[in-house]
Every structure is written in structure tokens, then in C-alpha cells.
Amino acid sequence: MYRALVAGLAAGCVAALVRLHVPGWPDVFVNSISTWLLLPFLVGLFTSSVPRAVVACLAQLAAFYIVAGVSGLGTTVVLVAVWTVFAVGGGSVFGAAGRWWREGGLALLGAVFVLEGVLDTGWVWVAVGVALTLSTYGLHHSSNTDQGRTMGKTRSNEGIK
């Protein structure tokens, strides 16, 4: 659990610092909803733990607002509360999506990148979303093919005995 916490704190600090000091597309990238959901997705992918994904997302948000607040980037209590609710919901959904993606069943993260790209951020997000979605298909397809080969070898070996 502490690794998810540390990863979230680090990601939130980096996002706030980039937001404060690097204008242009890096600022757009770290302020993107898709990007904020990437960490809980990865935590879910590598740990199969939705609670850890939620912790990572909340830590990311807390670190962002602490660094931004100390640096003079203004916010409101209402805004922090709203994003906290979204962090719990998004961390849960995308932590579960990361866990399911390992099994090749869900391209949710790619869909969010595509939707945000179409509605707001542009073609780079659409391209990232399409790549994520296609890689989901590729992972699922190759794992099914590997299972078929293994099953075929087992059957062949049984016939030799």
C-alpha cells in the first residue's frame, strides 16, 4: 500500500510543478483527466488492488493541492471536495480497469483518452487512446493464441504416452 501512496505523492508533486512552471502542452498533459487516471490504472494493472489504486489517486490529488497551495496556485474548498469525490470514483473504476486489462477484457483507459481528445485536447490524445485500445486487443489475442498452442501441445503429448 505504501508504494501506491508514494507513487501518488510523487505524481501529484510532478503534476503541480509542471502546471506551475512549464507552459504549453506539458501543462495540458498534466492537467488532463486521462493523465490523472493513468496512475490508478497502472496500480490496478500491477497490483490487482482497487483500494491501492484509490490510495494512489487520492495521494496524487493531495500532493498536487499541497504543492500548488504552497506555490500560490489558488483553489477553493469546493473544488478540492469535488476532485476528491472524482478521485475516489475514478481511482476505483480505473484501478479495476487496470486489473481487468491484464486479462484483455477492457479498453476503458483508451476510450477516455479518445473521448477527451475529441472533445478538448486534440489528436495526440486520440492517437494515444487508439494505441491503448489496440494494445488491449493485441494482448488479449496473443494470450488466447498462446493458450491454444499450450493446449495443443498438451493434447499431442497425451497422445504419445
Offer a concise description of the structure.
The protein is an all-alpha fold and 161 residues long. The chain has seven helices and no strands. The radius of gyration is 19 Å and the shape is globular.
Descriptive report:
- The chain has helices spanning 2-21, 25-30, 33-47, 50-70, 77-101, 108-121, 123-160.
- With 161 residues, it is an all-alpha fold.
- The protein has one domain (2-160).
- Helix 4 (50-70) packs antiparallel against helix 5.
- The longest helix is centred in the C-terminal third of the chain and has 38 residues, at 123-160.
- It is globular.
- 35% of the residues are buried.
- Residues 143-161 have low confidence and may be disordered.
Descriptive key words:
single chain; 161 residues; mainly alpha; disordered C terminus
Q: What's the layout of helices and strands?
A:
Elements: H1 2-21, H2 25-30, H3 33-47, H4 50-70, H5 77-101, H6 108-121, H7 123-160
Content of β-strand: under 5%
Q: Compute the number of helices.
A: 7
Order of helices and strands: HHHHHHH
Mean pLDDT over the full residue set: 78
